[in-house]
């Protein structure tokens, strides 16, 4: 097993590649942050389902991609804050992705939440990724 310097970027890249290749399933090593990101993506309608497989060692998170008329629901995602250059935003600086059609994902003091929820609760934090 290789040592990744940015496992969140690896997870997002796996999702992006699966979406572009029209793959229905993708799996990645499990972490709680990846589970929370997958929960947000499912709630916002970008993926169909996800499940955590703790039987395998190491534990895996398996994501089922969502397609609408053979078009992937997840058309793009970008990792914003990286280990070498963190990006922190205040509640008034949270970007609107594609004029509100996309979602920004933040890590706040109340956990991993969307930009819309952070604006409503007037919370800032680390801008992890943007999804559209």
Could you walk me through the main structural features you see in this protein, from its secondary elements to its overall organization?
By secondary structure, this protein is of the alpha+beta class. Strands 6, 7, 8, 9 and 10 form a five-stranded antiparallel sheet that branches. A three-stranded antiparallel sheet has the order 1-3-2, with helices on one face. The protein folds into two domains: 66 residues, Ribosomal Protein S8, Chain: A, domain 1; 55 residues, 2-Layer Sandwich (Dna Ligase, domain 1), CATH 3.30.1490.10. Strand 4 and strand 5 form a beta hairpin.
Summarize the structure.
The protein has 132 residues and is of the alpha+beta class. Helices cover 25% and strands 33% of the residues.
> Which structural class best describes the helix and strand composition?
alpha+beta
Oligomer: single chain
Choose one word for the global shape. Answer: globular
How much of the sequence lies in strands comes to 25-35%
- How many beta-strand runs? 10
Helix content: 25-40%
By CATH reckoning, the class of the largest domain would read Alpha Beta
Describe the protein's topology.
Elements: H1 7-20, E1 25-29, H2 32-43, E2 47-53, E3 60-65, E4 67-68, E5 71-72, E6 77-79, E7 88-89, E8 103-108, E9 111-114, H3 115-121, E10 125-131
Antiparallel strand pairs: 1-3, 2-3, 4-5, 6-10, 7-10, 8-9, 8-10
